[in-house]
Each structure stands twice: as C-alpha cells, then as structure tokens.
C-alpha cells in the first residue's frame, strides 16, 4: 500500500475508534503514531514526531485563552447571570405567541457571549425555561427543542471553545475568529426568533402556550432591569469590546473577563470558598482535556503532511474540475454526516487538517472557513444518535413526560434553521469578515 492509502485508512480508523468510544486524543495520537511507524518503517521517526509535537504544540502564549475563558464561563454560570438575562428577555417577549421561546433564544445568545459553552447553556436554560413553558401549556417538544437549538449559540458567539480549537488547528488568530463569530451568531439568533414567530402564525399547535399577563408587582422595575443587565453588559464590553478595539489581546481579555466575573460573583454573594475551588478544579480539568486534544490534533496534522494526504486530496478535487459550489456541497454533506457520529471537536480536529490545503489555494478566507466548519459541525449537536445537547437536556430535566425522542424531534426544526443560516454564510462570506475590515 502507498503512504497515501495508509493515511486514508488511518483517518477512517480514527473515526471508527472515536465512534466506538475511544477517547478522542488517544485515538488521534495512537493511530497517527502507528501510521508514521508503518509508513517510515522507523519507530524512532514516529517517536521524534511525537516528542517535537509535545514540545511545540502547547507552548504558545495564546493557549492561555483556554483556562481564562473557561474560568470566566464557570464563574458567570455560578453567579446566576443566565437566570437574570432570562428574566429580562421574558419580560420583553412575554406578550408574543411563543414569547418564552424567543426569550430563551435571546437569553442564550447573551449568555453565550460570556460563557462560550453550549453544554452550560443547555443545562442552565433547561432548568429555567422548560418548566415555565410547560406551566404555560407550551408543546413539550417545542419547549425542549428551543433550548436545544439555542444552546448551540454558545459554540458560535465568542468566546467559544470551538473557535479557539479551530484557530489553533488552522493557525489563525483567536481574536479574529472571535470577532468573525459575532455577526453569524446574531444572524442565527434572529433566524430562530423569526422562525418561532412564523411557526406561531402558521402552526400554532406546534408551539402551543398561552399568554399570561404578569401582575404589576411581578414586573421588573427599571432599577431591577438595570441590576440584572448591567453585569452581563459589563462583561461583554470588557471581553468583546476590548478585543474589537484592539485594547486587549484575547489572553488579556480573558484575564480581565475572569477578574470581572469573579468580582460580580463576590458582590452578588454567589461565590464561596468551596464554589471557587470547584471552579478552579473544573477549569483545570477542561483545560487539560482541550490541550490534550490540540496536542493530539497537531500530531495528527503532521502525520497527514508526512503521508501527503492533503495534497493528494487537493489534486483529486482539481482533477474532477469541481466548482466552488460542489466542493462546498460535498464539505457540508460530510460535516452533516460526521455530525451524526462524532462531536464538534472531533469533526474539527479530523476534517480541517484534510481540507485546509484545499481551501487556502482557492483564495478563500480561513476565518470564513472556520465559521462554516463550526456551524456545520454544531448541527450535529441536535441530531441523533450523538446529539450531545439533547442528551444534556434530557439528563438535566429528569422528567418522565418528556422522552429523548421528544427532545430530538423538538430540536429538528432548529437544526433546519441552522442549515439555512449555514448556506447564507457560505453564499455571503462577507458576513464573517465584515468586522475585520
């Protein structure tokens, strides 16, 4: 077998191992090591590749963004800011059919801007939003579907862990990826709200619910509205404003956001010594797992380069005379297929090193390609059998009235909206690069 054929088989082997439950970085590193050994017939070469990768991959200054933004997200979640944002959004949309669903989308979008985690969003709003929608007789599938659909905003709106992972794999700026994610994230949130309003008119039974007038004494006063929104606005201004204006690097923005989040949690008396220690431990666990992922992905990328698989893929596509349209169709179909089998991080780590040498010579922006990749992979969070957000919602809800099937069926329309937004982003790349100009 030729090195290219062995490399292609290694990619298949990695996908199969991950689907069978092997830890992602272990699958990437072990298969890459064996492939290098087989192709070179020199185990010392594979050992040297691994040693060099470990020495080079996680020593960059930008990697500090991972623990800083992770800690900030955990602190913000413990401070209860998700519930505050939901209360404000619920008061804004309460008189509209499907208004609580719209409020959930809006709150998720804002919450995502300071957490960057779809799993955290799914967990928080399952507890806050779903019980309220069920109380007001909303369709149970819509109630869980809107939480699942809007939770993916956490992986698109910065600071997103997936954008950080992509930036290191593709060797592009973390700050530019964050800025590029703002407009697509807002577009997706607005698309969800419009879709809910449209469904409320043409298929009201699919949404259900009733509008309940809130007594005046339950309405938030102006001072309460300011008190609930000010902390989140301050954090967004510090993090995204600092990066966009150039006053702060992504690492500095993460540090400033973490400090501000910690101060807010202390002022709100939501942070004890025990919860602070828990946040530190969880930050360490998450950071270690992500850095292990990136190290294994770097080793995998070097293996692909050694067997010349990306160049052979580019040559194959060139020989087929495929236009940009058909290349993107093939890429999106591949992403959707892998999304039913693998999680978002796995897809990014496996697919991007293969296709990046195809996209870059075409003169296309790697920043735009990153948003296309993340959005395409995120659709998999809503589709069986590996819809992680759907499993988190079911586990968090712990309600026998709602099955896992209900969660997946409720999320399906939102996956369709994501696909439409993905097509728009592909058709109009300027939506991802406009703020960078």
UniProtKB/TrEMBL annotation:
Membrane protein topology class: Multi-pass membrane protein
Gene Ontology molecular function: transmembrane transporter activity
Keyword terms: Cell inner membrane, Cell membrane, Membrane, Transmembrane, Transmembrane helix, Transport
One Pfam family matching this protein: DctM
TM stretches of this protein: 6-39, 100-121, 142-166, 178-204, 225-244, 279-303, 323-356, 368-394, 414-436
Record bears the keyword Secreted: no
Domain of life: Bacteria
Keyword Cell inner membrane (UniProt): yes
Subcellular location: Cell inner membrane
Principal place of residence: membrane
One GO cellular component, as annotated: plasma membrane
Start and end residues of each TRAP C4-dicarboxylate transport system permease DctM subunit domain: 11-429
Function in brief: Part of the tripartite ATP-independent periplasmic (TRAP) transport system.
Subunit annotation: The complex comprises the extracytoplasmic solute receptor protein and the two transmembrane proteins.
Family affiliation: Belongs to the TRAP transporter large permease family.
Name of the protein: TRAP transporter large permease protein
């Amino acid at each position: 077998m030729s090195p290219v054929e062995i490399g292609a088989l290694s990619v298949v082997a990695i996908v199969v191992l991950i689907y069978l439950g092997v830890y992602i970085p272990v699958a990437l590193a072990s298969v890459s090591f064996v492939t290098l050994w087989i192709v070179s017939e020199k185990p010392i070469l594979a050992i040297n590749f691994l040693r060099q990768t470990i020495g080079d991959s996680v020593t960059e200054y930008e990697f500090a963004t991972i623990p800083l933004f992770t800690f900030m997200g955990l602190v913000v979640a413990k401070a209860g800011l998700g519930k505050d944002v939901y209360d404000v959004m619920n008061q804004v949309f309460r008189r509209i059919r499907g208004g609580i669903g719209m409020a959930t989308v809006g709150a998720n979008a804002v919450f995502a801007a300071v957490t960057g985690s779809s799993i955290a969003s799914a967990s928080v709003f399952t507890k806050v939003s779903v019980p309220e929608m069920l109380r007001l007789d909303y369709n149970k599938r819509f109630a869980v579907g809107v939480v699942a659909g809007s939770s993916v905003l956490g992986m698109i709106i910065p600071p997103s862990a997936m954008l950080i992972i992509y930036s290191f794999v593709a060797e592009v700026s973390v700050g530019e990826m964050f800025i590029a994610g703002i407009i697509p994230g807002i577009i997706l949130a607005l698309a969800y709200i419009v879709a809910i309003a449209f469904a409320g008119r043409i298929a009201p039974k699919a949404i259900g619910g009733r509008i309940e007038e809130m007594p005046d004494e339950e309405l938030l006063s102006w001072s309460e509205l300011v008190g609930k929104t000010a902390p989140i606005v301050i954090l967004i201004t510090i993090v995204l404003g600092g990066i966009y204006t150039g006053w702060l690097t992504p690492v500095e923005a993460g540090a400033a956001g973490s400090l501000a989040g910690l101060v807010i949690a202390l002022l709100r008396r939501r942070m004890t010594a025990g919860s602070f220690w828990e946040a530190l431990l969880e930050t360490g666990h998450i950071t270690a797992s992500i850095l292990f992922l990136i190290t294994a992905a770097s080793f995998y990328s070097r293996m692909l380069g050694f067997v010349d698989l990306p160049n052979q893929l580019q040559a194959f596509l060139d020989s087929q005379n495929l236009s940009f349209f058909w290349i993107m169709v093939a890429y999106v179909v591949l992403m959707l297929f892998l999304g039913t089998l693998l999680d978002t991080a796995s897809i990014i780590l496996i697919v991007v090193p293969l296709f990046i040498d195809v996209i870059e010579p075409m003169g296309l922006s790697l920043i735009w390609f990153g948003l296309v990749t993340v959005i395409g992979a995120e659709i998999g969070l809503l589709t069986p059998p590996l819809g992680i957000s759907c499993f988190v919602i079911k586990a968090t809800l712990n309600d026998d009235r709602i099955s896992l099937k209900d969660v997946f069926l409720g999320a399906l329309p939102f996956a369709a909206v994501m696909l439409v937004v993905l097509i728009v982003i592909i058709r109009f790349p300027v939506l991802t690069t406009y703020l960078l100009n």
